[in-house]
Amino acid sequence: MEVTEADILILVIDDTAAAGSEEREQAHEGTVIRVLNKIDLSSRPPGMVRVETDDSRAQQVSGVASPVVAVSATTGEGIDILEDTILEQLGVSHAAGLTPFSARERHVRCLQGAAEALQIGIEKFEHNQAGELLAEDLRSAHNQLGEITGKFGADDLLGEIFSSFCIGK
Q1: Per mean pLDDT, which range of 19-28, 60-69, 105-114, 154-163 is the poorest?
Q2: Are residues 22 and 81 in the same domain?
Q3: Which backbone phi and psi does 165 adopt, to 5 degrees?
Q4: How far is 5 from 25, CA to CA, in rounded Å?
Q5: Is residue 156 part of a domain?
Q6: Is residue 168 part of a domain?
Q7: In a domain, 45, yes or no
Q8: Is 169 inside a domain boundary?
Q9: What pLDDT score does 79 carry?
Q10: Cβ distance 71 to 78 under 8 Å?
Q11: Over 60: is that where the pLDDT of 157 sits?
Q12: CA-atom Rg of the chain in angstroms
């Protein structure tokens, strides 16, 4: 189940509803960010919520305090604080001048490898004007991307390549 493998679980809770136990968070080992939504109806102020022992919607998970952010999806109040909280949990900061993108180091290496293979293929094509020689570079890029996605096999790639070529008999 994807919930157990996620780096961050964002648990959206209706702030106007009676508090109840959340089943999905119990199976999650990583960071949980609780989002109390509909504050436009509950009159809770937007932003970070201090965890109180009597507020079961802002309880701790596995003994570790999880961030709790009050927002209104309707008015947009608190959304900027939620975005900052997500970035903080991912280890990314606006102050560092980074885009709000996070990837595992392995994914970045795979993407760089795929980009390099495609660049080599482009250079070879521009030099030789032989599209059929691109196959090895495309296969290399495909293998790099397959390390991330794992969803597209070699037969699928060859099918895509050869479906657009007319090969003489």
Answers
A1: 19-28
A2: yes
A3: -105, 145
A4: 12
A5: yes
A6: no
A7: yes
A8: no
A9: 94
A10: yes
A11: no
A12: 24
Under a CB-based contact definition with an 8 Å cutoff, are residues 26 and 48 in contact?
A: no
Candidates 126, 127, 159, 122; CA nearest to 141 is 122
> Given a cut of 60, is residue 44 above it in pLDDT?
yes
Q: How many CB atoms lie within 10 A of CB 37?
A: 21
Which residue in the block uniquely carries the two structure tokens 């970035």? 87
Give yes or no: residues 13 and 85 share one domain: yes
- In the block, residue with structure tokens 């994807």: 2
* Structural domain span for residue 52: 2-96
Question: Tokens at residue 154, please?
Answer: 């070699």
Block residue for tokens 């305090």: 65
User: Residue 18 is encoded by which pair of tokens?
Assistant: 């009676």
Beta-carbon-side half-sphere exposure of residue 47 (alpha carbons within 13 Å): 2
Burial 147-166 (b: 16+ CB within 10 A, else e): ebeeeeeeeebeeebeeeee
- Mark whether 35 and 84 lie in a shared domain: yes
The enclosing H or E element of 80 equals helix 79-90
The residue among 83, 84, 72 whose CA lies nearest residue 46 is 72
Q: How many domains does the chain have?
A: 2
Query: What confidence category does residue 143 fall into, taking pLDDT thresholds of 50, 70 and 90?
Result: confident
Domain boundary among 69, 96, 123: 96
